[in-house]
């Protein structure tokens, strides 16, 4: 069953008000952050608040990820221990750059005897991470890694490399595509990074549409005001869903059973389009099932 992942909203674990609001928001998922949105002095308190929020449950269909601190920080092991206790849907590990990083996380899962239901998500946000994206994604072939998806991190890439984040994202597109392609080869979910200009509604809409067109499954967000536009961009339009159903119905007809290509409403349709149609319908059904 496909899970809708159009919109995953970051919120600082130190912000009690944000955590409280999380259960009412229309986001498909929530990323409770212990890393960059939380100051060093607030890490312990944020960890406790996230533990209490996840343990209290009540998030409905929303997927809940906890972003832990990076593996070179003094906090990540305590963060993982907390996650192992309260069992979110997944942990999101920032700045993962090598297969060895994933092995370190897997060892820690094992040491904690962490519930296998906790999936692993990694941020692709270092130069090495981008260059090794396919090698990292291939780790999903080993079930012990629990690897479920990538989250693209343009801010850290820009910080490390000097590659600038420009309107239209021309400088980021090659890296974004590398991330999406690596994810697709190994069956992972790929989520785009956040858009920081909270007040710029048109800019957000354009970036969501671009992320969708580049193949991302959804986008990470930083403010509740961004959720509706993001959901709209990643929801298959009703006309596309109707067309997808028509394609499947056409291939079901007895006269088309043995055919690879048919004509539908004046257009050539092949069985590969039926595969695309099945995915469109699965996403639309999952969104409907989630009641959003
Ligand atoms: C950016 C913010 C600090 C702005 O906060 P604020 O000034 O409080 O905004 P508003 O006054 O407009 O807030 C209105 C109400 O909405 C709630 N709110 C705000 N943001 C969130 C949120 N993210 N989740 C849930 N609720 C939120 C406020 O509490 C207000 O509520 P109310 O009191 O009822 O009116 C803030 O938006 C924020 O902290 N955003 C998240 C920042 C974050 O998590 N950053 C880390 C992820 S991005 C990243 O790491 C980059 C990546 O790794 C890379 O490298 O690219
Ligand atoms: Mg980052």
Automatic annotation (TrEMBL):
Keyword set for this entry?
Lyase, Magnesium, Metal-binding
Q: Where is the HpcH/HpaI aldolase/citrate lyase domain?
A: 6-224
UniProt KW Metal-binding keyword = yes
Sequence similarity? Belongs to the HpcH/HpaI aldolase family.
Naturally occurring in which organism (per UniProt): Rhodopseudomonas telluris
Cofactor(s) required for function per UniProt: Mg(2+)
GO molecular function annotation: lyase activity
- What is the protein name given in its UniProt record? HpcH/HpaI aldolase/citrate lyase family protein
Q: Which InterPro entries match?
A: Aldolase/citrate-lyase_domain (IPR005000), Citrate_lyase_beta/mcl1/mcl2 (IPR011206), Pyrv/PenolPyrv_kinase-like_dom (IPR015813), Pyrv_kinase-like_dom_sf (IPR040442)
């Amino acid at each position: 069953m496909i899970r809708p992942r159009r919109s995953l909203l970051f919120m600082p674990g130190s912000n009690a008000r944000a955590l409280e609001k999380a259960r009412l928001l229309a986001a498909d998922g929530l990323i409770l952050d212990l890393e960059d949105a939380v100051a060093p002095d607030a890490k312990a308190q944020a960890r406790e608040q996230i533990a209490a929020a996840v343990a209290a449950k009540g998030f409905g269909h929303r997927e809940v990820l906890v972003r832990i601190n990076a593996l070179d920080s003094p906090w990540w092991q305590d963060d993982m221990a907390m996650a192992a206790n309260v069992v979110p849907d997944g942990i999101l590990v920032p700045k993962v750059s090598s297969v060895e990083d994933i092995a370190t996380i897997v060892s820690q899962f094992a040491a904690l005897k962490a519930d296998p239901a906790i999936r692993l998500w990694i941020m692709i946000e270092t130069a090495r991470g981008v260059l090794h994206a396919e090698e990292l994604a291939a780790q999903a072939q080993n079930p012990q890694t629990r690897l479920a998806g990538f989250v693209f991190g343009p801010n850290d890439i820009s910080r490390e490399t000097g590659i600038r984040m420009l309107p239209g994202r021309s400088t980021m597109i090659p890296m974004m595509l590398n991330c999406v392609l690596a994810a697709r080869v190994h069956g992972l979910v790929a989520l785009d990074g956040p858009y920081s200009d909270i007040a710029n509604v048109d800019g957000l809409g354009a970036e969501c549409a671009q992320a969708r067109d580049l193949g991302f499954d959804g986008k990470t967000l930083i403010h509740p005001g961004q959720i509706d536009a993001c959901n709209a961009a990643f929801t298959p339009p009703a006309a596309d869903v109707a067309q997808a159903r028509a394609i499947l119905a056409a291939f079901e007809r007895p006269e088309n059973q043995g055919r690879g290509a048919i004509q539908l409403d004046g257009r050539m349709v092949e069985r590969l389009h039926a595969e695309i149609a099945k995915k469109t319908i699965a996403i639309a059904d999952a969104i409907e099932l989630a009641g959003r």
